[in-house]
Amino acid sequence: MRPTALAALIACLLAGTAQADVRLLTAATIHTGDPDAPAATALAWDTDTGRVLAVGDRQAMLTLYPLAAVTDVGQATVIPGLIDAHAHLMFLGGTLMQADLTGATSTRDIVARLQRFAADNPEGWLLGSGWDQNRWPDKRFPTVADLDAAFPDRPVWLGRIDGHAGWGNSAALRAVARQPGQRALKGSWQPAGGRIVRDAKGQPSGVFVDEAMSLVQAAIPAPSEAAREQMLARALDKAVSQGLTGVHDMGVSRADLALMRRFADAGRLPLRIDAYADGNGDALADLCAQGAYQHAAGRLEMRGVKLFMDGALGSRGAALLADYSDDPHNRGLLVTSPDDFETAVRKADTCHVQVATHAIGDRGNRIALDTYQKVLGERRATDHRWRIEHAQVVALEDIPRFAQLGVIASMQPTHATSDMGWAQDRVGPERILGAYAWRRMLAAGARLALGSDFPVEQVDPRLGLYAAVTRQDRAGQPPGGWQPDQRLTAAEALRGFTADAAWAGHDEAQVGRLQPGLRADFVVLDRDPLSVPPAGLADLQVRSTWVDGAPVYEAAR
Question: Are 118 and 182 contacting, i.e. CB atoms less than 8 angstroms apart?
Answer without folding.
Answer: no
